[in-house]
Amino acid sequence: MDTDAEPATTAPRRWLRLALAVLAVEMFVIGVPAAIAPEWFFHRFPFGRGWVASTGAYNEHSMLDLGYVYFAFGIVLAWAAVRLGRELTRAALVAALVANVPHLIFHLSHTRRLPLADDVAQSLLLALPTAVNLAALLLTLRRPEAGQSPT
């Protein structure tokens, strides 16, 4: 008998908690600078590359709203990662997916505004959390076996 093996419920819960934490970090990485320094975020985010500026004119109100909303998503996702309650987790993941999928689609359909390397990096950096988001949501939909936790 392998005593080092994790119980059946532990591994999925760890993966779910990790996915929620990754998504919270994603939201904070976007939300905090947009809320604190909207003009810097617009012209320099990320890594000084100015990806946001390639999409149109600067609007302080829009940048601040974006920052506050992403910051709020980060808080809810972090809360879900800590609590790991079934309904909170699903609601947080669905909300993040509603934000991430259209964001990814917009940028995939508006390529060629940046140098090729930036387009590829941006697409990958948006697709990765979207895939993590979807995988985590699917993990919450699996049916628990008798005696297992639902998340």
- In one word, what is the shape? globular
Radius of gyration over all CA atoms, rounded? 18 Å
Rounded to the nearest angstrom, the distance between the terminal CA atoms is 26 Å
Elements, N to C (H/E): HHHHH
Number of helices: 5
Strand content: under 5%
Q: How much helicity do the residues have?
A: over 70%
Low-confidence stretches: 1-7
- Calculate the mean pLDDT score and round it: 89
Helix and strand composition category: mainly alpha
Number of strands: 0
Strand count, sense and barrel status of the largest sheet are:
none
Summed up, the domain count is 1
Please describe what this structure looks like.
The protein has five helices and no strands. By secondary structure, the chain is an all-alpha fold. It has one domain. Helix 2 (38-44) crosses helix 3 and helix 3 runs antiparallel to helix 4. It is globular and about 50 Å long. Residues 1-7 have low confidence and may be disordered.
Show the helix and strand layout.
Layout: H1 10-36, H2 38-44, H3 60-83, H4 86-108, H5 116-141
Helix pairs in contact: 1-2, 1-3, 1-5, 2-3, 3-4, 4-5
